[in-house]
Design goal:
alpha+beta, 2 helices, globular, 27% helix, 4 strands
Length: 113
C-alpha cells in the first residue's frame, strides 16, 4: 500500500512516540517499534501505561499525566495533529508488553481501523 505523506512530519511523530515511551516507561522499560499494514506505526512499551480514562485527555495540548511528568505536554498532541493532517488517527491502548500501545495510522488506511 502506497501512502502519500510528509516524511519529516512522520519522522518527528515517530520520534515523539519513542521519546514519550522512554520518558514515561520507567527504568528497564522495554520498547518495541513496529510497522504494520496498512500504513501503521506502533510503539509498545512495558511501562505503567496510560489509564483508559486518560487516553483522550493526553492527546490535548499541554496535558500531562501527573505533576511529576516533565515536558510540555505537547508530544502526543503533536503526533495526533500529524495523524489528522494525514487523514489518519492516533489510538492509545494497552500494550501486549503491559504498558501503553500507541498506533499511528495514516491515509485511507485509518478508515479501516
Amino acid at each position: 500500500t502506497k501512502v502519500d505523506a510528509d516524511s519529516p512530519s512522520i519522522e518527528r511523530a515517530l520520534s515523539n512516540l519513542i521519546l514519550n515511551a522512554v520518558d514515561h516507561g520507567g527504568k528497564g522499560c522495554e520498547i518495541r517499534v513496529s510497522v504494520e499494514r496498512p500504513a501503521t506505526l506502533v510503539v509498545d512499551d512495558s511501562g505503567p501505561g496510560i489509564p483508559a480514562s486518560q487516553r483522550e485527555r493526553v492527546l490535548e495540548p499541554f496535558k500531562r499525566l501527573g505533576s511529576s511528568s516533565h515536558g510540555t505536554g505537547l508530544g502526543l498532541y503533536l503526533v495526533a495533529e500529524v495523524a489528522r493532517l494525514h487523514h489518519g488517527v492516533l489510538k492509545i491502548d494497552e500494550s501486549p508488553l503491559g504498558g501503553a500501545s500507541v498506533r499511528l495510522t495514516i491515509g485511507e488506511a485509518a478508515g479501516s481501523r
